[in-house]
Design goal:
This protein is mostly helical. It has helices at residues 5-27, 38-41, 46-64, 71-100, 104-114, 120-126, 129-155.
Amino acid sequence: MQKYKTELKWGLIFMVTALVWMWLERLMGLHGRHIDKHAIYTNLFAIPAIFIYVLALLDKRKRDLDGKMSYKEGLITGLIITLIVAVLSPLTQWLTAVVVSPGYFPAIIDYSVSQGEMVREAAEKYFSLSSYIRMAFVGALGMGMVTSLVVAAFTRKQ
């Protein structure tokens, strides 16, 4: 476990950052009165997410690899962080839905139905904790892999 201490630290930092982001979205009204803008602004989370991966790989290079890191080492580090983030994503989603923003699902269901985007039954199925847990897990794996592939190229140093 000591071998993956850096990756675990950054996976946890990612989780906390995601929770803080959700809390900020709620404070800004994106889970309530401005829910119509949520789909646009939530995508901005990509900025801190990528930044965390950059910091994580630079930290790994500095602390664990004596200032040198190959593309492969960076990629493996990024993929381990991705796995940690994906494994933690159900907990992150649960905390978001139950603690941070318990009114989000009812609000987004009502909004989707009122806009004619979905019938209520479909909206309730799609905008549910179980659905979001699945989407978060798959999304964490997919986006984490892509981010790792790219960030590893920029953080390598021989």
